Structure to design on (724 residues):
């Protein structure tokens, strides 16, 4: 056999796990994104006291598939004066950036596509920030006013909040001491508490900045329907729009994964080193079994027979997953699989909680105006993030050089950071008050145009 | 790592393409982009030699070059914007205010 | 073998995109091709095991400088410029001089191939498994021996930021 064939076979033998994981990510993430859209619609409905999609499939569970089919068979409209190459390229860039960033995420101690990258966290942040080009090139290529304005606003917003998010990540990284994802989670294990509790200010800044990074409400001016039609996505229809949407929701998963890894302990269970809480290791299996029991109980109450079968199928799937999670706990020789499987469960649970927070904020808060958005990013979040980096650095030095207790140092510096935040907000209020008082007063009261 | 000659050839090729861009293009923005290409070629050279000798100083210097390129691009583009506001052109041979 | 494939792929993409970049009529197309060139260069850095520089290139160059370029191209975009002559009158002289330089360097590289232990085409780098962790090594050097240039670089960036804002502000 020729040496190239040997080389190809050797390559496949060494890298088959990564290749298969890559293919799985590219194949599965669009499906997961579709179900995230369904979850959002159901949650929105629940918070608005209605039911959401119920028609397609039992409880609307086949709605994403119907949506995907509809988008695929839609007519592909390209504006006349659009730049065809760039028009084609833009959604592809947006989606590719989001999916490539998922290669660096570790869903468990053994589930990572790109293993042991020295610069793991920075890789995810950097590659997901390439989605910017999808937005700005898409807005440009559409050759339409709404698109360009939406694209420019969205890009300005993304760039501003990227800085704040990066500085918030630096605060967390100061405590982790490394950019390697596994080492970050191991640092949280050895410190016994998640970094989100050690620097809550950094976690908060990252949460807010990541909402702005993914163009979600309340920062969704660039794609708000009442403001700019659909912003940079105006001229995109059918599958191209689906690519943009997929990129946006995949970006949500990516920022959720970054926040979970750095601030919420990654794949660690709550209180990972407290021994009397070891019974928490059984929670994944019990939780899944409880969901299965709920589905089984509701199955009998479905109105249509196919929905009854579907609920039983979901219940059986939940029981199967619960069994897979429970078996390594019970059977002693398989105990080594416990951190891996349970870790994946905890990781997914935390990401789901984070995304639930995103969706909850979308349904609750009104939209920020663009100048308010930029003001919040540059005048409040970035100075706060810089002060927080200083504060965490000082706390680390106090702990390492002067032997303070870690909690004491961090609480003192967090209080100082919060004081700075209050100071910034007071400055902001003073500036807003000065601006409104500079407006010339109303005309004389005798000029009442409604009188008489 | 490949033998160093390959990286030198790549670096030279990018440098020369960038040099052609700087000398021959009339659009000053494309000229600036070609300058960025030249800086990248130099970076490849530095990092290749850093890997060959095992000394990380080459990468440190490449990082400085990236920072410097950012600063230069920002100022250069600011100048272009200011000039465009005055003269409505980005062609280099129409920027002849200092000619006799 | 994998090393070779990766190198030739990224090098090919880099040179092809660079050549396309300097010949496009539309400045946005040039910018897109420069982005692919920069991404290919980042790939070369990764192949050289310079991981931090790989991601620094992507974040700073592609995610920062190129966004700036694209914004400015959108600001100064003229349809008039698309229909004018793209190349200046010195293009043939430039091409000739460049080819001469290329030939010179090519001859130098080729004629050194037989020199034992010194040729440019001989592999002589330490294997990858003996390399220290890249980010830590870079940070150690940067904040130890090169601290002053680091501080000067930050002052330079501050000056450039202020200068660019002053240059581009509207004089009301």
């Amino acid at each position: 056999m020729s040496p190239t064939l040997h080389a190809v076979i050797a390559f496949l033998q060494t890298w088959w796990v990564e290749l298969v994981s890559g293919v799985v990510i590219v194949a599965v993430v669009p499906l997961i994104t579709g179900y995230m859209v369904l979850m959002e619609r159901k949650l929105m409905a629940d918070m608005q006291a209605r039911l959401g999609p119920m028609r397609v499939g039992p409880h609307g569970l086949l709605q994403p598939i119907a949506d995907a089919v509809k988008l695929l068979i839609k007519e592909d409209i390209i504006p006349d004066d659009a730049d065809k190459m760039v028009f084609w390229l833009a959604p592809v860039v947006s989606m590719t950036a989001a999916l490539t960033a998922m290669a660096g995420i570790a869903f468990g101690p053994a589930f990572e596509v790109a293993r042991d990258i020295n610069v793991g966290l920075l890789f995810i942040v950097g590659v997901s920030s390439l989605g910017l080009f999808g937005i700005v090139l898409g807005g440009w290529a559409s050759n339409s006013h709404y698109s360009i304005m939406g694209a420019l606003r969205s890009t300005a917003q993304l760039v501003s909040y990227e800085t704040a998010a990066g500085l918030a990540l630096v605060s967390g990284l100061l405590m982790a001491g490394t950019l390697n994802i596994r080492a970050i989670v191991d640092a949280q294990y050895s410190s016994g508490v998640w970094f989100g509790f050690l620097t809550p200010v950094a976690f908060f800044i990252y949460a807010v900045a990541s909402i702005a990074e993914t163009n979600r409400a309340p920062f969704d001016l660039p794609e708000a329907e009442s403001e700019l039609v659909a912003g940079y996505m105006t001229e995109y229809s059918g599958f191209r729009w689906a690519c943009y949407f997929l990129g946006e929701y995949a970006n949500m998963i990516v920022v959720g994964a970054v926040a979970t890894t750095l601030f919420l302990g990654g794949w660690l269970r709550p209180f990972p080193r407290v021994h009397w809480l070891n019974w928490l290791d059984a929670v994944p299996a019990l939780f899944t079994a409880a969901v299965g029991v709920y589905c089984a109980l509701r199955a009998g109450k479905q109105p249509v027979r196919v929905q009854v079968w579907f609920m039983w199928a979901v219940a059986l799937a939940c029981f199967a997953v619960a069994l897979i999670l429970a078996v390594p706990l019970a059977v002693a020789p398989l105990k080594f699989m416990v951190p891996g499987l349970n870790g994946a469960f905890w990781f997914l649970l935390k990401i789901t909680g984070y995304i639930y927070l995103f969706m909850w904020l979308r349904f609750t808060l009104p939209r920020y105006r663009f100048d308010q958005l930029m003001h919040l990013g540059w005048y409040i979040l970035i100075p706060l993030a810089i002060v927080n980096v200083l504060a965490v650095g000082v706390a680390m030095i106090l702990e390492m050089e002067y032997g303070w207790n870690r909690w004491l140092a961090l609480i003192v510096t967090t209080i100082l950071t919060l004081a700075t935040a209050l100071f910034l907000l007071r400055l902001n209020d003073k500036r807003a008050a000065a601006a409104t008082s500079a407006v010339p007063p109303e005309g004389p009261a005798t000029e009442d145009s409604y009188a008489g | 790592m490949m033998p160093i000659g390959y990286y030198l050839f790549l670096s030279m090729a990018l440098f020369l393409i960038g040099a052609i861009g700087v000398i021959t293009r009339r659009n000053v923005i494309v000229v600036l982009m070609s300058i960025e290409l030249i800086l990248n070629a130099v970076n490849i050279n530095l990092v290749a030699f850093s890997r060959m000798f095992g000394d990380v100083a080459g990468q440190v210097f490449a990082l400085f070059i990236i920072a410097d390129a950012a600063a230069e691009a920002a100022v250069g583009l600011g100048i272009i914007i200011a000039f465009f506001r005055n003269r409505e052109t980005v062609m280099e041979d129409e920027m002849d205010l200092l000619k006799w | 073998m994998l090393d070779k494939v990766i190198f030739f792929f990224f090098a090919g993409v880099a040179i092809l995109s660079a050549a396309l970049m300097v010949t496009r009529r539309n400045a946005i197309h040039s910018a897109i091709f420069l982005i692919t060139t920069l991404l290919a260069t980042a790939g070369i850095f990764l192949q050289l095991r310079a991981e931090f520089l790989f991601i620094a290139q992507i974040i700073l160059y592609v995610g920062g400088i190129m966004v700036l370029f694209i914004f400015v191209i959108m600001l100064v975009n003229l349809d008039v410029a698309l229909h004018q002559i793209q190349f200046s009158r010195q293009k043939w002289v430039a091409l000739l001089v460049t080819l001469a330089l290329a030939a010179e360097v090519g001859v130098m590289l080729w004629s050194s191939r037989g020199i034992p232990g010194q040729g440019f085409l001989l592999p002589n780098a330490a294997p990858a498994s003996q390399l220290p962790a890249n980010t830590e090594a870079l940070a150690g050097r940067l904040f130890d021996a090169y601290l002053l240039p680091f501080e000067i670089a930050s002052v330079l960036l501050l000056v450039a930021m202020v200068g660019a804002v002053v240059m581009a502000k509207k004089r009301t």
